[in-house]
Structure of Sdz-33 F-box domain-containing protein:
Amino acid sequence: MEEQPVIHLQFEGSFFEFTLELQRHNTNTTNLYEFPIEVKVKHWKEAREVESTISNQQMKLVEWIRHISLFSENRGIDFHVEHTNFDIPTLRKNIPKMRGISVTCSKEEPDEHDILNAQKILIPFLSDVQNVELHRVPLQENFSLTHIGMVHLKELELNYQNNLNFLDVAAWNVESCVITTMADQISLRDLNRFFKLWIKGSNPKLKEFFVYWNTETIPDWNPLLKGLKAIEKWAIEEEKHFIIRNNRDISADIKVEHFDGDTASVCFFLSD
């Protein structure tokens, strides 16, 4: 069954869902200039749900998108690579001041179509948004994580992205980066090289850098800390806290931790 466009808005204490019901077409691309048949609205507040249906108000789909987006200052949009059937450039043009996008691929084995869809989504938005979130998104060399990381972003969140290279991250231009990955994608020696490059002056805009991965084994943190001249601030059970300093005399905290019995993390943030 074809999925209908859904818009979510969240305010303090309230949550709205707008489902724009469209005519069924044989085409693979949704026409943003057609009129919805009707608009279904769900409103959640204080554990109560209210559902109603309103007419299309003689507004086209793109007008509904513009109208609803005006109610939220922190505008973001979620895409699923395998369910993208919009004219993306037209959609981008009609959503003002977009702050962030989230892109997800749920397929275990993405194909060429999914890769092209991911590019089709990301490229029009990258130059304008501040925050990007990727979940298992298939990418290629002609448009890779490096291309995304070189854009000046406030936040870049990567969840289980393949072929992640921490040495490439050293050349990125983001202020905050959060990476969640698998144990076999983690190299503490590469993270050590990443921090050594920061000490030498790379990543001048980086303020926060967090890496999380699943492991039941408590990591040996020595390969990570080797040669960093890290000063230990404190240690509590499986959590240790260090200070490092770069060649511009900027201090940063590194916190390493193994928690919940199955998760390890390395957290980097500039010192106050």
